[in-house]
Specification:
By secondary structure, the chain is of the alpha/beta class. It folds into two domains: 120 residues, NAD(P)-binding Rossmann-like Domain (Rossmann fold, 3-Layer(aba) Sandwich), CATH 3.40.50; 188 residues, Dihydrodipicolinate Reductase, domain 2 (2-Layer Sandwich). Helix content is 34%, strand content 25%. The strands form three sheets. Strands 16-15-14-13-7-12-11-8-18 form a nine-stranded mixed beta sheet. The chain has a seven-stranded mixed beta sheet with strand order 3-2-1-4-5-6-17, sandwiched between helices. Strands 9-10 form a two-stranded antiparallel ribbon. It is globular and about 60 Å long. This is Gfo/Idh/MocA-like oxidoreductase N-terminal domain-containing protein.
Length: 372
């Protein structure tokens, strides 16, 4: 079956006009959001995986998806799947991503890339062996018009040399769910750092064009216990629900990040890049990017047409996959977060947690910059 799947995949590489067909590993975000959004973008969803076969079949039936699997190898080997979307728990990302790549499929993997940078490196190594396959992380905020406009303004030199980057993401995320789950276990890649922090770090780097080199971090767990579903018992949460970073940018400059999943009151989600001659503000609540000159006067503003940053980003990322025709070098995928970019983001999270544990400044293990 795997050989048949690879042969069919190679045959379709010569037919870019045919819609890319997606198999989704996971029945949460994958079924609730990706299935309808992917279809709207022009992708075909042809397979769904759940470890519970009956659950996979039920979702497939309800959503009109032709194939349901309870085997990762079977989904990845399916000849009617060109792209595998990995939307499984973080501690399974590496296993599932590598299975997809080895089966000859394009890869779109959810964030965070893996539980650790070392684990992410195994995905990067596998992708490097297969340059004809797309291998990207689902950092959809890169595909917003607003974030791309902000990046272009910084790259043009309009605000001068970058002095500092500030990000503030304050949300109430219900303690990462009402009941205890892997999201509350640090060893499994849980925490607000994995649920939201990786988006913030990636966005700061994407817009500013500067990677984080050193961090002083603090991670907190304010909601320390969560009830076990269907039981009177509680479990201790080991994953963070709040963290901060004060850091140094590669090549000079500073960065500060505050991410909370237990904030009360009005949500705030913004990234500010300050240069010698002005600044750029990305406001994800308004979904806008605004360029201010050195006197604080608005010089330019770009607004997204849709009100939800993550939903719009998911749609435009899917549209980019369609436009790419399955070619990793397509200009449509230029904004994409490569798996090596995802490994860098995880390196920052690893350094933040190590700094929080040790109370010391920690250098980020920076991989070579990704080439696109």
């Amino acid at each position: 079956l795997k050989a048949v799947g690879r042969a069919a995949f190679r045959a379709r590489e010569c037919s870019p006009s045919m819609p890319l067909r997606v198999g989704i590993i996971g029945t949460g975000w994958g079924c609730k959001v990706q299935v309808p959004v992917f279809r709207k973008a022009g992708l075909q969803v042809t397979a769904i995986y759940s470890r519970d076969k009956a659950k996979a079949e039920q979702f497939a039936s309800n959503l009109g998806v032709p194939h349901a699997f309870d085997s990762i190898d079977a989904l990845c080997g399916c000849p009617e799947v060109d792209v595998v979307s990995v939307v499984s728990p973080t501690f399974l990302h590496a296993e599932h991503a590598i299975a997809a790549l080895r089966a000859g499929k394009h890869l779109l993997s959810d964030k965070p890339t893996a539980v650790s940078a070392d684990e992410a490196a195994t995905i990067v190594a596998e992708a490097a062996k297969r340059p004809s396959q797309i291998a990207i992380i689902d950092h959809e905020l890169r595909f917003l018009k607003a974030t791309q406009a902000a990046r272009d303004i910084v790259a043009s030199g309009a605000i001068g040399a970058v002095r500092h980057v500030n990000a503030q993401f304050l949300l109430h995320m219900g303690g990462l769910g009402k009941n205890f789950s892997w999201w509350h276990e640090r060893s499994k890649g849980g925490g607000v750092s994995g649920a939201l922090g990786v988006h913030v770090i990636d966005l700061c780097t994407f817009v500013s064009g500067r990677r984080i080199a050193k961090v002083a971090g603090q991670a907190n767990t304010f909601i320390k216990e969560k009830p076990v579903r269907g039981s009177s018992e509680v479990q201790v949460a080991t994953a963070d629900d709040f963290f901060t970073i004060i850091g140094q940018l590669e090549g000079g400059g500073a960065i500060s990040i505050v991410v909370s999943g237990v904030s009360q009151g009005k949500p705030m989600r913004s990234v500010v890049v300050v240069g010698e001659q002005g600044s750029v503000v990305v406001d994800l609540d308004a979904v806008t990017a605004t360029h201010y000159d050195a006197k604080g006067k608005e010089a330019a503003k770009v607004a997204e047409s849709a009100p939800d940053a993550f939903m719009q980003g998911t749609l435009t990322l899917a549209e980019a996959l369609v436009a790419s025709g399955g070619s990793p070098g397509s200009p449509a995928l230029a904004p994409a977060c490569l798996v090596s970019d995802g490994m860098y983001v995880q390196s920052v999270i690893d350094a933040m947690l190590k700094s929080s544990d040790s109370g010391s400044v920690v250098s980020v293990a920076l991989p070579p910059p990704a080439s696109k």
